[in-house]
Amino acid sequence: MSRPILLAVSHGTSDAEGARAIADLVGAVAAAMPEVEVRSAFVDVQQPDAADLLPTIDGPVVIVPLLLSRGFHVHHDLHGMAANKADAVVSAPMGPDPRLAEVLAERLAETSAETSAETSPETDGPVVLAVAGSRDPASLTDAEATASLLSLRLGRRVELAYLAAREPDLPHALREHPDAVVSTYLLARGFFFDLALRQAPGRRVTAPLLDGTTVPQPLIDLIVARYEEASAQLQAALTPEPAQS
Length: 245
Prior knowledge:
This protein has eight helices and seven strands; from the N terminus they run βαβαβαβαβαβαβαα. By secondary structure, the protein is of the alpha/beta class. The chain has two domains: 5-93 and 212-238, Rossmann fold (3-Layer(aba) Sandwich), CATH 3.40.50; 98-199, Rossmann fold (3-Layer(aba) Sandwich), CATH 3.40.50. A four-stranded parallel beta sheet has the order 2-1-3-4, with helices on both faces. Strands 6-5-7 form a three-stranded parallel beta sheet, with helices on both faces. Helix 3 links the parallel strand 3 (61-65) and strand 4 (88-90).
């Protein structure tokens, strides 16, 4: 069997900088896997729409969600469309994963370095991890796992806040932790990043995982790993059982 196509599916954004950053990520993954055809699609806002594109692709496909946790788009949209194509499979989403915690820690270090010693809070103070939020129970488990991974990496307390769907929201979390820095658990700039900035005036707020400059190698490695894991599962599923003698 030839190597399955990697269909990288992200939410989509109307923010031009965020869209470019995600396109750069997909391009970096393609460069890291020259033997694999890499294509991109979206579940909202941008085109091509994944549900429209998938049926037009011949041959096996591994759908890799460029999403940070399980939720409606993974369970309903992506698994729903893959169910209609016998040689398609959906990988696990990007998170939770220690490689995401690694990049989150880098963003926090960058934000700390940009702040002068006179105005910077203590570096061992709490971190509020701002998550987009979903009503899917699995997304709560994933957010808590990411907070634990980041806390372990930093050796600092990490508190969760949600930008939609769940409590506590970011303003409440910041009232509870007035000395905290905000770590945005978002893939790229867009609606939720702008909301985080509005809800945390005067606070240190980290850039998203994709800051619009260099694509972090851990994110490339993570997507490649998700593809390889799901590709192996797909190959096993499509390999005929040996005939019984």
